[in-house]
Design brief:
alpha/beta, 2 domains, eight-stranded mixed sheet, six-stranded mixed sheet
């Protein structure tokens, strides 16, 4: 008996339209760039979508799974147009090689390029044109910017249910299971999409507590009903300027269109009713530092700077939190992670551990968010920037932030990296010889994903509102594609 043939591919990227940086092909190639056997080795054992594909292939010998181009890069500014075209062409040409029994794509859903606000949609349409009526499924990030036309290209779609995103492998497995059922003809998925008439930032979009947790619980109730294959609410990515901006409720049933429509409308209404709860105002950096230090407990207190979080398109370059930290002069061991500055790392490596150099922190990519902090700093440590995640977010995935340097700046340990990636895993700090149990205050350019690995390691996590590319107020950004009626009020 011949095996069924499954083609899988990945193009995962979240783009911030307001970031001054451009993501070129080299950034994808440095992070996730594999196909065939190399992709299997890269993803095996990881809690990711492609890790789930490897597990599916090994558990289903009746399926022959072919890994086409798999590309992923850390969130950042718009993708260079030619980089997207290269990835798209490789995926489509791979699909043209033969006929398939099913196709699965791992997408984020909020990719943008320099000139195209909807490249994910273009890829979906391109794949459908190539494969015809072949069963086709995709999984999306919880922050995807979606529309009914995008979902209409697919037979099955799934989305992350958790934020922090610790269920990537789970939703991919869900998509693959439904895809296998589709190929057998045992299910007949029908979808309904409902948009929320607003754009929400993800500051208060955690599924562990607050309004999103409530909506996620409602979605889980719908998924528990007979004939419901998928029910989830996508929060959207506020900084990805797209005509599909705003939260989306997606429900897919087994040949029950009325049920799908009822559930999607109910979930969108629940999201809309909680708008005031999503629109929060974090304290300024100085206030956040004071609040964190005043919180009792023996574990470290943490302050996050979401507006420069690379996983929201931050640039690892804004100085607001560091400046407030220097003004506060905390009387406890303090760590700041991080700044993205390859040239400063190179200078530190040339000078060597123990050397003191005149250094400029922040304001390198853009001074729009504050002038650099210039001071003498002593090189404390140098690393190759490589580690493997030990926390639940992208567990076991290899990470390379490029060569790094850690400085002593007025008694504060400041980490500087050659790559712009969020310090979301405890192994990031282990790499630099930092024992978190001995840290009093931990300040990071991070957001909600940070909580997955650090909630149990800290006594509190306080967000601050500092200037940056992904700030809490959308009034600071010049939208070109998002529907204008979603931006008011």
């Amino acid at each position: 008996m011949s095996k069924k043939k499954l083609a899988v591919a990945r193009m995962w990227y979240e783009g911030n339209s307001f970031s001054p940086s451009i993501t070129d092909l080299g950034i994808f190639q440095a992070r996730e760039w594999a196909e065939g056997a190399a992709a299997i080795e890269l993803y095996r054992g990881t809690a990711t979508e492609m890790g789930a594909v490897v597990a599916f292939a090994e558990a289903h010998p009746d399926w022959e799974v072919t890994f086409l181009r798999c590309a992923g890069a850390p969130p950042g500014g718009p993708v260079a147009d030619d980089a997207f075209k290269v990835i798209e062409a490789e995926i489509l040409s791979g699909l043209m090689r033969q006929n398939w029994d099913a196709v699965y794509l791992s997408l984020h859903g909020a990719m943008i390029t320099v000139s195209n606000p909807t490249p994910d949609f273009d890829l979906l349409r391109g794949v459908r044109e190539v494969i015809g009526r072949t069963p086709f499924a995709a999984s999306f990030d919880l922050h995807a910017n979606l529309c009914a036309e995008m979902i209409g290209q697919l037979d099955m779609a799934t989305g992350y249910k958790t934020y922090p995103h610790i269920d990537k492998d789970v939703v991919a497995t869900q998509a693959l299971t439904c895809l296998a059922a589709l190929a057998k003809g045992s299910i007949a998925p029908v979808s309904a999409v409902a948009k929320v008439p607003a754009i929400y930032t993800s500051f208060n979009m955690r599924t562990t507590d607050g309004p999103m947790a409530e909506v996620a619980a409602l979605a889980a109730e719908w998924r528990a009903k007979p004939d419901v294959l998928e029910a989830t609410v996508f929060g959207g990515f506020a900084y990805g300027d797209s005509p599909f901006a705003g939260p989306t409720a997606l429900v897919i049933t087994d040949d029950e269109p009325a049920l799908a429509r009822e559930a999607a409308d109910a979930l969108a209404a629940a999201m809309a009713a909680r708008r005031a709860q999503f629109e929060i105002k974090p304290p300024a950096p100085a206030e956040a530092i004071a609040q964190a230090l005043a919180t009792p407990g023996s574990k470290p207190a943490a302050v996050t700077d979401p507006a420069d979080n690379p996983l929201s398109g931050g640039i690892g370059d804004t100085p607001g939190l560091l400046r407030a930290l220097l003004d506060a002069k905390p009387a406890v061991p303090t760590v700041f992670g991080f700044f993205w500055d390859p040239e400063l790392v190179a200078r530190a490596r040339a000078a060597g551990v123990g050397a003191t150099i005149r250094a400029s922190f922040g304001g390198r990519v853009s001074d729009k968010f504050g002038a650099p902090v210039v001071a003498d700093a002593t090189v404390l440590a140098l690393t190759d920037g490589r580690f493997r995640n030990v926390g639940p977010y992208d567990h076991h995935l290899e990470v390379d932030v490029g060569p790094t340097a850690m400085f002593d700046l007025a008694g504060i340990r400041v980490i500087v990296t050659s790559g712009c990636q969020t310090p979301n895993d405890p192994a990031y700090f282990d790499l630099h010889g930092i024992d978190l149990a001995e840290v009093g205050l931990l300040c990071v350019k991070a957001k909600n994903h940070f909580r997955a690995g650090f909630t149990d390691l800290t006594r509190c996590i306080v967000e601050c509102d500092a200037p940056g590319p992904a700030g809490v107020s959308l009034a600071h950004y010049d939208f070109r594609y998002a529907p204008k009626e979603l931006l008011g009020g």
